[in-house]
Amino acid sequence: MPYTMFFSKDGKAIHGTEWATLRSYVHTYLTESVDSQGCVGLTREEAKIMFEWAPVNTRIVIVEEEPDE
Question: Whole-angstrom Cα distance, residue 1 to residue 20?
Answer without folding.
Answer: 11
